[in-house]
C-alpha cells in the first residue's frame, strides 16, 4: 500500500486530467484515483458528438502548456481531433489505468477528527454503491456536461426521436425528416448547417429561438505543413505563438469594461455584427438575428456558414417559444404548429447546478449546496476553495472562468495553485488546509464589486447568471493574466493549516520576495494602462504569460 496520502479526482475531463498530470509533475504524487461517470475520458469532448462540433478557441492555445501539439490540422479543431489529443495526453501520463469509469459521485463527507474525506459512488451500469476514503478531494465535474431539457408540457408524449445536442443520436437517419431544433447557441450554430444538408430537399429544419447572439464571422484555415514544421522544430516557436494567441484573446476583455473606451470597442463589435447579418442573412430574418443587449453580456458565437444556411428553402427560423408538444408536433406560444419527426434540444446545460448531484458536507456537517443557496449562488475563494471544506478543491469553480479566453489556461492556473496549497498536505505532513472565512469574504467582495463595472452584469440573462438571484457565478472580473498572477503563490495568512490538531504558520522568504516583485510588476502594468491606454499595454500584460511554464519551479 502506498505511503502517500490518497487524492480522489472526480471527473476525467479537461481539468480532471490536468490535475492528475500536475500531481505527478509538480509534486511527484502517484496515489490518486480518477472517478468518471462516463465510459471514457474527455468530458465535454467525449459527450458532444454532434455534426461539425468544434472548439471556438485556437487549437494552439486550447491545449495544455505541458503537452504542446505542433501539428494541429486547423485553427479551430474539431471534436475528433480534440478528443484524440486528450487521449494522447492520458496515454503519455498513464491516466487511464488510474480511472474508474461509469462511477457517479453521490456524496463527499469530511471527518474532521481523522482529516479524511469519505466519498460515495454508484456504478451507472450495475447500481453498486461503493465508499472510498481520501485525504484530498478534487471536484473536476465541470458544468457543460449536464444537459438542460426544458419542462415543456407534453414532451413525454412525443412519438418521434428526441435528444439533446450533447447526447447526439448518430443512428437517426435525417434524410427526408422534419426536424425541429430548440435553441440557437454555439452548438446549434455549428450543427444546423450540416443538419440542413442531411435532411435534403425532401426534409425540413425548423429552428425556434428566443434570443439573438453577437455573431462573429470566423473561418477555420488549415495550418500548412511549413507552419507545423516551424512549431515542431524551431525553438520556442510554439511558446511564442501561444503568447500571441493569448494576447489576442485577452484584448477582448477591455470591451467588457463599462467605460468610454469599452463602449467604443463594443460599438465596433455591434457595427461589425450588424453588417455581417445584413450581408449574409435573409432579409426576413435579420431583425430576429440582431441582439438587443450589450456585446459581451453573453459569450459571442463564431460562425462562417450559419447565416448563409438560412437562405436554404428547407430551413425555417422563427422567434417563438414552444408552449407544448404533442405526439407529432411542436405548438408554440404564438399558436404556430410545426410537425416533427425529430426533436433536438439545443437548450444548454445545467450550469447553475454546481456539483450536482454530489452532496458535499464539510466541517460540522455543513452542506455546501445549502450554503451556496443561502448566498444566492456558488462562491469560492479564488474560484477554487471554500471555507469550512478542508482539502476540497473545485476546478472550473465559481468566478474563475472567462468570457473571452481559453478554459484550459484558467484551469491550469487553478491546478497549479491547488498543487501549491497541497504541498504541505502531500509532502510536509500537514493534515488539512482550509481558507479562512474572512479571507473568502474579502475575495468575494472584490470579485462582485468589480463585476458591477463590467458588461456581464448589464442586464441580459446568460448561463453565467443564476436565473433567480441574477448573481454572476462564473466570470472572473479581470484579464486572465491577472488571475494567473494572483494564483502563483498562496497568501498563507488566508489559510488555516492544521497538523495533529495544531495550527501551523507557513511562509517562505523566497515566496515573499517573488510575490513583492510580481506586485511591483502588476503596479507598473496598471500605471502603464492609465498612461498609455488598455490597447497599448497588452505587451506588458502578456509578458506575464511567457513565464507560465516557469511557475511550476516554485510550486
UniProtKB/TrEMBL annotation:
SUPFAM superfamilies: FAD/NAD(P)-binding domain
InterPro entries named among the record's database cross-references: FAD-bind_Monooxygenase_sf, FAD/NAD-bd_sf, Flavin_mOase-like
Superkingdom of source: Eukaryota
The keyword Membrane is assigned to this record: no
An example molecular function term from Gene Ontology annotations: N,N-dimethylaniline monooxygenase activity
Keywords of the record: FAD, Flavoprotein, Monooxygenase, Oxidoreductase
One Pfam match: FMO-like
Family: Belongs to the FAD-binding monooxygenase family.
The protein's name in its UniProt record: Dimethylaniline monooxygenase
UniProt source species: Myriangium duriaei CBS 260.36
Highest classification ranks of the organism: Eukaryota, Fungi, Dikarya, Ascomycota, Pezizomycotina
